Structures are given as structure tokens and as C-alpha cells.
């Protein structure tokens, strides 16, 4: 049972990290597109 909990929390942490990365990428794209002529 403990293994299952560890796996779930690790998976959740990975999803959180991926979500933050996606937000950063979107912001960078918006800035680049906004500053493009």
C-alpha cells in the first residue's frame, strides 16, 4: 500500500512539473509572438 501511495505522489509531482513547464512555454511563446513584427 505504501508503494502505491509513493507512486501516486511521484506521478502527481511529475504532472505538476509538466503543468508548470507548459505554462512557462506558453508565456514565452506569447512574449515572442507579441514582440514579433
Characterise this structure.
The chain has 1 helix and no strands. The radius of gyration is 16 Å and the shape is rod-shaped. It has 37 residues and is mainly alpha-helical.
Q: How would you briefly describe this protein structure?
A:
The protein has 37 residues and is mainly alpha-helical. 92% of the residues lie in helices and 0% in strands. The protein has one helix at residues 2-35.
List keywords for this structure.
37 residues; mainly alpha
Secondary-structure blueprint:
Layout: H1 2-35
Transmembrane segments: 12-36
Pfam family, one: IlvB_leader
Protein name: IlvB operon leader peptide IvbL
| Annotation field: number of helices | 1
User: For the terminal residues, how far apart are their CA atoms?
Assistant: 56 Å
Beta fraction: under 5%
Overall pLDDT confidence: 87
Which structural category do the helix and sheet elements fall into?
mainly alpha
Amino acid at each position: 500500500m505504501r508503494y502505491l501511495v509513493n507512486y501516486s505522489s511521484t506521478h502527481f509531482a511529475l504532472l505538476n512539473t509538466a503543468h508548470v513547464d507548459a505554462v512557462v512555454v506558453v508565456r514565452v511563446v506569447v512574449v515572442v509572438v507579441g514582440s514579433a513584427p
